[in-house]
Amino acid sequence: MEKTFSTAVVTGAARGIGRAVAAELLDAGYAVVLADLDAQQGQAAAAGLGEPARVRFVAADVADPVATAALMTEAASVFGGIDLLVNNAGIMIRKPPEELSVAEWRRVLDVNLTGPFLCARAAAPYLRARRGAIINIASTRALMSEPHTEAYTASKGGLISLTHALALSLGPEIRVNCISPGWIDVSAGQESLRAADHAQHPAGRVGTPEDVARALRFLADPRNGFITGENLVLDGGMTRKMIYV
Q: With contact defined as beta carbons under 8 Å apart, do 136 and 178 qualify?
């Protein structure tokens, strides 16, 4: 198929940050392949974007190497190639360490860390042909923690390390960067948030999925091709704030 659009694959795109990223990239002129394990919500998200000629949904478990290979093959087949991979899919299981099963630990690591590796590996030939980019969505949990988040925190710390490793292995043809969001409220309108929730942020407010999407659009832009191997912390300044009791 003759190339018509730059093409982005966004995992975990059925809701929240992933859906906002898909909308932002669509606005930037990309054709977007939304991938998610939740087929019903993913199809609804794709339909809601309102650009059927430039949007495709593919149901996929990113922890499955067969599924990730099929996802990239379909994306390239439908739109002629891949220019951008956004590894956003992630899950959290919050339990005390003594209660977290090994199977639960492994599932979180499989989705949050092995998944981005599998997606990057499967997309690499297509991205290399277009001198494309990979952007991973990690978390400030990689830099600071709350109790009972061991699997999630470990997976996001690994994802930041995977980012700079891939940047060296896949460069210069493919740039690889990471965004670590802090508190991003994915509810509509932020009605459930308190004034204190916003005030504790040096930026004066809790973040939104659109904040992440705009930062990602900047990193994806080929004009910013000198940026690779980086982790952009996007948290309203919270990791720079000293807190004393």
A: yes
The phi-psi region of residue 188 (left if phi > 0; otherwise alpha if psi is between -120 and 50; otherwise beta) is: beta
CA distance 29 to 52: 13
Supply the residues annotated as catalytic: 152
How do the domains of the chain map onto residue ranges? 7-240
Amino acid at 69: A
- Name the 3-class secondary structure at 55: strand
Instruction: For residue 205, give the DSSP letter.
Output: S
CA distance 138 to 117: 13
The reported pLDDT for the residue numbered 178 is 98
Paired with 7 in beta bridges are: 31
Number of Cβ within a 10 Å radius of residue 39: 13
Instruction: Provide φ and ψ at 13, rounded to 5°.
Output: -95, 5
How many DSSP H helices and E strands does the chain contain?
8, 7
pLDDT mean over 165-191:
92
Whether domain 7-240 has CATH 3.40.50.720: the reply is: yes
- Where is 111: in which H helix or E strand? none
- Cβ pair 183, 234 in contact under 8 A: no
Question: pTM of the full predicted structure?
Answer: 0.95
